[in-house]
Amino acid sequence: MTTTADQVGHLHTPPEIGGIGHSVRRHEDDRFIQGAGNYVDDIELPGMLHMAILRSPVAHAKILSIDTSEATALEGVVAVVTGELMAEHNLAWMPTLSGDTQAVLATDKVRFQGQEVAAVIATHPYIARDALGLIFVDYEELPAITSPQQAMADGAVLIRDDKEGQADNLAYEWESGDKDVTDRAFAEADKIVSLETHYPRSHPSPLETCGAVADVDPASGQVTIYMTSQAPHAHRTVFALVAGLPEQNIRIISPDIGGGFGNKVPVYPGYVIATAASLLIGKPVKWVESRTENLISTGFARDYHMKGELALNSEGRILALRTEILSDQGAFFADAQPTKFKAGLFHIVTGSYDYPAAHVVARGAYTNKAPGGVAYRCSFRVTEASYMIERLVQNAAYDIGMDPAEFRALNFIKPEQFPYHSPTGFVYDSGDYETAMRKALGIVDYEALRKEQAEARAEGRLIGIGMASFTEVVGAGNSKDYDILGLKMFDSAELRVHPTGKAILKLGVKSQGQGHETTFAQIVAEELGIPAGDIKVLEGDTDNTPYGLGTYASRSTPVAGAATAMISRTLREKARKIAAHLLEASADDLDWEPGKFFVKGSPEQSVTIQDVAFAAYTNPPPDEQPGLEGVHYYDPPNMTYPFGTYVVVVEVDAETGEWNVDRMIAVDDCGVRINPMIVDGQIMGGLTEGFAAATNQFITFDDEGNCIGSNFMDYLVPTAWETPRFELDETVTPSPHHPIGAKGVGESATVGSPAAYVNAVIDALAHLGVRNIDMPLLPDRVWSAIQNATG
Amino acid sequence: MYPPAFNYSAPTSVEEVLATLAKEGEGARVLAGGQSLIPMMKLRLASPSYLVDINDVDGLDYITDVNGHVAIGALVRHNDIVKSELIGSTNHAMTDAAPWIADPIVRNRGTVCGSIAHCDPEGDWNSVMLAARAEVVAQSAAGERVIPIDDFIVDFFTNSLEPGEIVKEVRVPKYTGRGGGAYVKLERKIGDYATVGVATQLELGDDGKIAKAGIAMTAVNSKNTRAAAAEQVLVGETPSDELFREAGNAAAQASEPETNVRGTEEWKREVVSVYTRRGLETALAQAQAQA
What we know:
The complex is a heterodimer of chains A (about 800) and B (about 290).
Chain A: H1 29-32, E1 49-55, E2 61-67, H2 69-73, E3 77-82, H3 83-88, E4 93-95, E5 101-103, E6 109-110, E7 116-122, H4 125-132, E8 136-141, H5 148-152, E9 170-177, H6 179-187, E10 191-202, E11 211-216, E12 223-227, H7 232-243, E13 250-253, H8 269-281, E14 285-288, H9 291-297, E15 301-312, E16 318-330, E17 357-366, H10 382-400, H11 404-411, E18 420-421, E19 427-428, H12 433-444, H13 446-458, E20 462-471, E21 483-484, E22 487-488, E23 491-497, E24 503-507, H14 516-528, E25 535-538, H15 556-583, E26 590-593, E27 596-599, E28 602-608, H16 609-618, E29 629-634, E30 643-652, E31 659-669, H17 676-695, E32 700-701, E33 707-708, E34 726-730, H18 748-765, H19 779-788
Parallel strand pairs in A: 1-14, 12-13, 16-17, 24-25, 31-34
Antiparallel strand pairs in A: 1-7, 2-6, 2-8, 3-7, 4-5, 9-17, 10-15, 11-12, 11-14, 15-16, 18-19, 20-30, 21-22, 23-24, 23-29, 26-27, 27-28, 30-31, 32-33
Chain B: E1 7-9, H1 14-24, E2 28-31, H2 37-42, E3 50-53, E4 63-66, E5 69-73, H3 78-83, H4 85-90, H5 92-97, H6 104-109, H7 112-118, H8 125-132, E6 135-140, E7 143-148, H9 149-152, E8 153-155, E9 158-159, E10 166-173, E11 178-186, E12 196-204, E13 210-218, E14 225-226, H10 228-234, H11 241-254, H12 265-289
Parallel strand pairs in B: 1-3, 2-3
Antiparallel strand pairs in B: 4-5, 5-10, 6-7, 6-10, 8-9, 11-12, 12-13, 13-14
Helix pairs in contact in B: 10-11, 11-12
């Protein structure tokens, strides 16, 4: 199990095998770059009908009546579905991934703008949309609650009057760490540094919106649902539980998925309505939402109002951290997160630093906004945590007069302290934070840059150098602590080597663009010596893949990747016995090099893995079962803890508050890199999303609860044009418990980079006394901070 | 994104276009680049009963040098302005603004005249046209009329075309002396409408004093608006930092921005002031560079 040092930066396989460390070109790109992908909206079935959803125009209102008669009468309309009809089948409400309930179609009230009110099933998508305009709903408007502070105020109107025993708008309350020990540390502190900031509501906005084609066969009862799902197996189980359908008759197929970023983890009302409609009508029903529907109604992310404090001693050592969170949950508590942890893994907020005490209090409030709280390219609220601690640490350095880099170095967990037990209960598996930070500072020539900054300030120019030395926790779970709706967070791999030495690998996870078809083939190539190009990776069909919890929270490589390595090793051991049989030698006398077994000391006496595969079907040893296949379910012993340091250099226009990124350096340590090219792509994508969050990207609401950010004119997704150039580098600290030492990297940059960008702008203004600007750092906010500065 | 049903034809002559518009009445709209109209239809914010597509009409994509002005035909795309040497040598503000219009895909399809006719207060071209004192040529079955841009822009998404009229061309006057111009735009990302935009144009007399000045603002009023007081600050004066600052302040005073998701009213006024000054500095440098 243990990764040895020689795996670091050392290739075990030649390029023609393409194992770990090779930048193999992505197998899946052959079809994607030809426009030959197969997405949900590409699915066409005979007799298929089309569904469109009528959504609430108001944020909070009683539904007095719904008149569907004109819509029903429109030629081409097959059915109009309302909450009343769904209620007759006990499907008006469904469970969320956080154990709350969510309306499928509203029956009593609408609780956010964009909520599902009715659905039209028609012969043509245009007719379905035309009919939406012929449904007349009588609303009695109620006051809209648009902030968690407002929700928690005395006398606030009750949003969830549907829930028995719910007397206020509190969605959850949760804490972590030791309050008494933390308070004592604060009492003894020489200095306390505090920060109050908001991580705004954002949206994963995958390019492919959500959708489904539900196909219920009335004769057999077979339910096939083509669905934009990051977690098809878990969704099948949810469908079985919600609809009471026999699970063996439910088949979820996630075809190619055009980006997920956490948005395709929840079960959405549209999936349920389309399935119910297909069941009632007996024909396939397609539902694909528009961009606006995706932005206003599906899983948002973040929206954490955070207060944090660090207790310091006079030497600049951190003694303790305490934080208080108020999260804006929207109308239904629908965070996609492990059951035990109501604020996700936010309690990783102690970060990369060594101190004995921390206390986290988190509360969530219902508001009249869309539900969600999904982990947008993030391991369950790690982004908010990393942002909080990295902002606090930077401010602490200013307030005690230390350089922010040296302050970090002083407080880092040291390499010899791993495995490190954090004050909120995590066991960090490995890390070497200072090496990564020094590398990043070296690339940017930090000392020279600080001089340049001082000279520029003398000329009235504002240059800022920001950094973040983040630690993530990814790869849930272990089954003891991590489950979703009771389903333990393991994952699985099934590997079948065919007689000609080609293989098929089936996984319980589901790629949405991460490159699984290449990366996982490379793991098999590494372990079994079969060329990566000879291995087909199959995911996303619940009838044809082993059970798994899906792809999110950077868990595919830590969990399914481990399962893949383990089943490959199991098959290699069987292959060794077959090879011994072929070579008429003892299995113990054989040595392995990728792709072949040979007799120790006699390399000319060898058989290839392809020879062995053929023999498994044509000439198996008498005491072995024929064939070469198996399945492995992997329950990780711990999470993995990727880390790194990002450094951003900005220049701020003092007159207008506009700012530009001059340099962005990212040194990432995700352990062993399976496909360095794909890792670089993942990091650049995350750095872009961090840039978006820091500069422009948020969803906000007016006082009536109207969503501002309902299309790509208002919700801004950066393109290559405005995105800074990234300078990437790495250190490699293998995970000690992962079979190949890998850690998961898809989310590091989204998690780590927002604080680096923001810290850079704050650094440019720090001498003026500026310590906080809420994201996004719109130029007017930066300009106001300069205007109001006291320094 | 499914628009409501509509009828459509693509005539090949201006006469046919005008006849179709007359016949189909108020529900008919001209489709040129379609970069505003089509998205509005897909969002069901506009539901014309009839689209008259003018893209098959020959001879409307001209940029020609006429006495004293440059004529830009109804089918000239934004990107044609980016590439036009004639515009590059006769109107710096247009050349400056063109690459800021939306994104490359929109610029390849969207038309200058369509954008001018749309009168979106966040659109860029009308500020440039105001600064240049352009004229719009409207044509109907009854004939042509020439409308000064100040009269053409009526309000928020409202122009002064009569029913049955189309914009056939826009005429941009050439500098009569040493001239220069600039368009300074604050946008949130590529493809965004302006948060604030300022078009400036200057012409210098032989004495080095400012003979003509044009300043107009985008997205800070209910329509693209000329900063007339700021222009008056400049005319007849010798250019200086102080003078440009004063003009910037006058422009800011003429702006009536709203606080919204893009920023506060106070900040937008400040940006108008700063951008006016910066635009004038650029325009002056260009004018002075001419012999």
